[in-house]
Amino acid sequence: MAGKVVYQNVHGIEECFIIADDEPGNSSASRRPHKNVPALASTVQKTKQWIKELMQELQWDDAQKTYHGLSVVLHALRDRLTVHETADLASELPMLLRGMFYEGWQPDQVPVKDRSKQAFLSHVFEAFRHDPVVDAERLTHAVLKVLSVHVSAGEMDDIRAIIPDSLHDLFPKRGVHR
Fold first, then answer.
1. Distance CA 73, CA 125 (A)
2. HEC profile of 128-152
3. How far apart are CA 136 and CA 157, in angstroms?
4. Where are the domains of the chain?
5. What CATH code is assigned to 38-170?
6. Which of 19, 27, 43, 125 would give a disulfide with 96, using CB separation of 3.0 to 4.6 Å?
7. Cis bond leading into 132, ω under 30°?
8. How far are the Cα atoms of 17, 46, 117 from residue 85, in angstroms, in the given order?
9. How many Cα neighbours within 13 Å face the side chain of 53?
10. Above 70 in pLDDT, residue 110?
11. Confidence of residue 156 (pLDDT cuts 50, 70, 90)
């Protein structure tokens, strides 16, 4: 089965062709031994789990929209952290999300100058400007809640210590960790 997925990222619009050659009925798949890379299978599974949890939290049924929301909020957070803290947070993300987290990052331009709550939420709102149903603050709360479940309490405390006080109310209450 082959399909075409179109998505937008920091570089603009990209098209990605998905070819699943291990689908039932695909004769070429039956002639080749199945090869699996455990590290890739693991990061895909972990990323799917994060997306599933976020979809449940937001009560959304669109995984692509959810992934986009996760990406946008994590980028807004990343751009408000120091280079060192960005690397610390990234080290706790699944490999696939870590790659997304660093996509488009310009370490010589962080942390951004306007670190207000309004600027943070404007970044999220702008990414969904054509989808009036998305509430930027609700999306941000949900992403940070899922992040808090998967990232160590110490890392979340480090992030809170770095970000401005105006952003603290976007984070879940302490104690929403693993």
1. 10
2. CCCCCCCCHHHHHHHHHHHHHHHCC
3. 23
4. 38-170
5. 1.10.490.110
6. 43
7. no
8. 35, 22, 19
9. 17
10. yes
11. very high
Q: For the whole model, what pTM was predicted?
A: 0.80
Structure-block tokens of residue 140: 């941000």
Question: What is the secondary structure of 6-52 as a DSSP string?
Answer: EEEETTEEEEEEEE-TTSTT-HHHHHS-----HHHHHHHHHHHHHHH
**Residue 27 has what pLDDT?**
55
First-to-last C-alpha distance (Å) of the chain: 38
Give the residue among 78, 89, 96 at the shortest CA–CA distance from 154. Answer: 89
Whole-angstrom CA distances from 68 to 11, 40, 62, 87, 138 are: 14, 20, 10, 21, 14
> Do the beta carbons of residue 175 and residue 145 sit within 8 Å?
no
